[in-house]
Amino acid sequence: MLKFAVQSFLATALLTACLLASADQEQKLPKIGVLLGTNPSTAAPYDEAFRGGLRDLGYIDGDNVIIVARYAQGDTTRYPALLHELIALKVDVLFVAARAIFAAKEATSTKAIP
Questions:
Q1: Is residue 114 part of a domain?
Q2: CATH number (domain holding residue 83)
Q3: Residue 102 neighbours by CB under 8 Å, 6+ apart
Q4: DSSP line for 15-51
Q5: CA 46 to chain centre
Q6: I want to staple 22 with a disulfide (CB 3.0 to 4.6 A). Which of 30, 44, 47, 109 is the partner?
Q7: Sheet with strand 66-71: strands edge to edge
Q8: In which domain, by residue range, is 19 found?
Q9: Per residue in 86-102, pLDDT tens?
Q10: Is residue 45, in this structure, part of any structural domain at all?
Q11: What span, in angstroms and rounded, lies between the C-alpha atoms of 10 and 8?
Q12: Dihedral angle at the C-alpha atoms of 80, 82, 87, 93, nearest 10 degrees?
């Protein structure tokens, strides 16, 4: 659990830096795309920890940031399609499950994100 907490802290710190940069560039709400490998009910504790970390930093979903989540339902073959959905929504930051990192790198290295 400590490892997850450290990873969540680091991810939140990185997201904060990206969101601040994004918010300065435009007056739109920054979007965070989240891709998790499980289903919403299994991911609920992690989702709440993530959102709680953002809340602690002043980022509240629907108020000053938009969080868009997609769930692979345990099927890793869904990662590319779900990533393309998030990219099409023009998210500013991607937060992905560890097993989706390589799919995210491939999806974003093709310059699919404007």
A1: no
A2: 3.40.50.2300
A3: none
A4: HHHHHHHHHHH-SSPPEEEEEESS-HHHHHHHHHHHH
A5: 12
A6: 30
A7: 66-71, 31-36, 93-96
A8: 2-109
A9: 989 999 998 888 777 77
A10: yes
A11: 5
A12: -100
